[in-house]
Amino acid sequence: MTRNRSSAHTKAQKAGRERDGNRCQICGSRNRVEGHHIVDYQFGGAASVDNIIALCRKHHIDVHSGKIDIFII
Ligand SMILES: [Zn+2]
Ligand SMILES: [Zn+2]
Fold first, then answer.
1. This model's pTM is above 0.90
2. Is there a domain that residue 59 lies in?
3. Which of 10, 29, 64, 71 stands 20 to 30 A from 39 (CA)?
């Protein structure tokens, strides 16, 4: 039994990026902006734009390396 979750997550990432105007929500950069899952789907995060934040490459790496914490206010 396989279920493809990744395509739903990819769609949510794209929709979240567009909602954020393709700008990093930390620094406002438009350079290589990616959708980041605030709660990773491995930990039960939803495939929904509410769970996505747009981040530039640099800040995305910082979040994943634990330099920056993102949480829902
Ligand atoms: Zn940034
Ligand atoms: Zn991420």
1. no
2. yes
3. 29
Residues less than 5 Å from ion ligand 2, measured at CB:
36
33-37 and 52-56 beta bridge pairing:
antiparallel
CA dist., res. 10 & res. 1, Å (int):
21
Q: pLDDT digits over 12-59, tens only? A: 999 999 999 999 999 999 999 999 999 988 889 999 999 999 999 999
Q: Which two tokens stand for residue 54?
A: 């747009």
Whether 1 is in a domain gets the answer no
Residue 61 Cα to ligand 2 middle (Å): 8
Q: Is residue 16 included in any domain, yes or no?
A: yes
Number of domains present in the structure of the chain: 1
